[in-house]
Amino acid sequence: MSHLDELLRQLPAFKEWVPMHVRTWSFYAFILVFQLSGGIYLSALPDMEGETALMQEDLLMAGLSSFLGISMAFPLLFRLKFRLTSRFILQVTSAGLVACNLVTMYCRSVPLLVVTCFIAGMLRMWGTFECFSTIQLRITPTRNFAVFFPVVYATVFGCIQVSGYLTTWLAYHYHWQYMQLVIIALLLGVFGCTRLLLRPFHMGKPMPLYGIDWLGALLWSTGLGLLIFVANYGDYYDWFHSPLLCAALAVGIGCVALNIGRMHHIRHPYIDPQVYRYPKVVPIILLFAALCLLSSTATVLQGVFTGVILGYDSLTAARLNLPSLLGTLAGAAFTLYALTRLHLTYKQLTVLGFVCVLAYQVECYFLISPETALGQLYLPVFVRNFGNVILYIALTTYLQQLVPFVFFFQALGAVGFIREGIGSPIANALTARLLKVVQQSNAFTLSTSLDGLDVRSASLPLPELFGELQRQSLLVSLKEVYGYAVLLGILFLLLVLAMRYRHIVRFVRMPPVEVFKRLLEIRHTGERGN
User: Fold this and answer.
1) CA geometry: angle 238, 240, 244, nearest 5 deg
2) Domain end: 242, 269, 296, which one?
3) Is 505 part of a structural domain of the chain?
4) Burial 126-148 (b: 16+ CB within 10 A, else e)
């Protein structure tokens, strides 16, 4: 380990009297708080919808803009880390997230909610990155990303499950705003601990923020945001029968096309076109798109099945977060062991991940029944999250090996445009539209047998008869759409098996020498500035 690595491993941003174990675990606690925080907590959507008088699509748009903000932050993270101190960054992110939570508690303006949640997503990612990058050498002294990424994704996906259950529990027993109050209290604790434990320490001369394509960031955000708007409001406005959606789609595609043209002609684009020229980057993006499409069944169909068919309330359905959490932790632990001990290839892990996601579709296909107990869904939910985490870790580690360090954060942003940006909204919209069309067709087919000659239907009251018709048509439709997902999953699995992967066995990547030269201007310059 170099002298610089040894210095960074001591976490010099802390004051000298702070013990080492307190330094590491306090930053990890900060990460948990940042990951639990957000603008709109989608698990409390029904309660918010009733009290705020906003449509479900309005609140979803705000929540989705938070994920878009996460992906838009990636190209800026490295620059900001070496420009500002950890103390300043954590104070800004925690205070900013407190303000965002206060706005979302009382604001009823949809545009302001969308902008606030977008900012909250960026701040959440910024704070998480600052903490994780600071304690990276405490997690893996050799910068082994096969160790680092499993810890990252176990934390991120685990917090998603914990946040979902905690939000549902608080909204069910108390009020949906209690989640914001709990998070605000935790963020104020982060702010106070930062003031108490950290010092304004610079590792050398701060890097300037010159050459950032702010216009490109604005165009990417606007274009992708409009595409999310079309996918989110499509069913409400009847898709392309609406001039508003047609205009939004045209402007969104125009912004993306303009940005693609700009990035080939300016010196420092927000996403360098060189990122897409590295081998396997585009296939990795397509694999994440396929994962979003297959995961949409869990978002759309599983919620309809547990809520409408099985009749579970939100708190009962939230019990599925426990097997989701266990699947996440087990998947991260397995991937860590597979990469560092079993030395499985990226292709083997990708195939295993898609097999698990496909197994979820198959299990749910056979479980679609009004007699299904909630406990029977534990295994498929566990398997799906197990496979999801494997895919995220394997593909991100593979991407990190393919792209040079100088372009890595831009590559994460490009992947995030699909993974956290437009991938899930478009996939969910397609699945919901397919379910609606299939259900209408099945309801029409089943209703043709309901006449005066059918003794059972003739003996039922008309409202009860049509209620049972809708229920049976929905059951058949859910099974049919899950069947389509199984076929699509088999197709994706065959394509993955046919792909050629580069054989890479090194997991340790270092920043370029130029960065280290800048960082080696330490102690004297930094401490005099302090």
Assistant:
1) 85
2) 269
3) no
4) bbbbbbbbbbbbbbbeebbbbbb
The letter for the amino acid at 402 is L
Question: Domain for residue 376, yes or no?
Answer: yes
Contact call for residues 82 and 129 (beta carbons, < 8 A): no
292, 433: one domain: yes
3-state secondary structure labels for all residues of 13-40: CECCCCCHHHHHHHHHHHHHHHHHCCCC
The answer on 425 and 286 residing in a single domain is: yes
Q: Domain count of the chain? A: 3
Contacts of 80-85 with CB under 8 Å at 24 or more apart are 80/126, 80/209, 81/129, 81/130, 81/133, 82/203, 82/206, 82/207, 82/515, 82/518, 82/519, 83/206, 83/207, 83/208, 83/209, 84/206, 85/13, 85/198, 85/200, 85/201, 85/202
What pLDDT shows up at residue 91? 93
Q: Are 121 and 67 in contact (CB under 8 A)?
A: yes
* pLDDT average, residue stretch 36-40: 84
Does 30 lie in the same domain as 116? yes
- Contact residues for 375 (Cβ-Cβ < 8 A; gap 6+): none
Higher pLDDT, 421 or 515: 421
Answer yes or no: do 59 and 135 share one domain.
yes
pLDDT, residue 421, reads: 86
For position 351, what pLDDT does the model report? 92
486 to 287, 354, 365, 374, 471: CA distances (angstroms): 16, 11, 8, 22, 23
- Residue 448 neighbours by CB distance under 10 Å: 7
pLDDT at 523: 38
Decide if pLDDT at 23 tops 50.
yes
Range of the domain at 466: 272-447+456-499
Do 229 and 260 fall into the same domain? yes
| CATH number for the domain harbouring residue 341 | 1.20.1250.20
Is residue 193 domain-shared with residue 309, that is, in the same domain?
no
- Long-range pairs of 108-114 with CB within 8 A, sequence gap ≥ 24: 108/52, 108/53, 108/54, 110/54, 110/58, 110/61, 110/62, 113/39, 113/40, 113/58, 113/59, 113/62, 114/61, 114/62, 114/65, 114/225
Six-digit token pair at 161?
Answer: 């499950």
What confidence tier does 383 reach under pLDDT thresholds 50, 70, 90? very high
**Same domain for 124 and 244:** no
- Are 10 and 128 contained in the same domain? yes
Q: Is residue 504 part of a domain?
A: no
- Predicted TM-score (pTM) of this structure: 0.89
| 460-474 tens-digit pLDDT | 666 766 777 788 888
Domain membership flag for residue 204? yes
Instruction: Give how far Cα 177 sits from Cα of 52, 58, 215, 239, Å.
Output: 11, 18, 36, 33
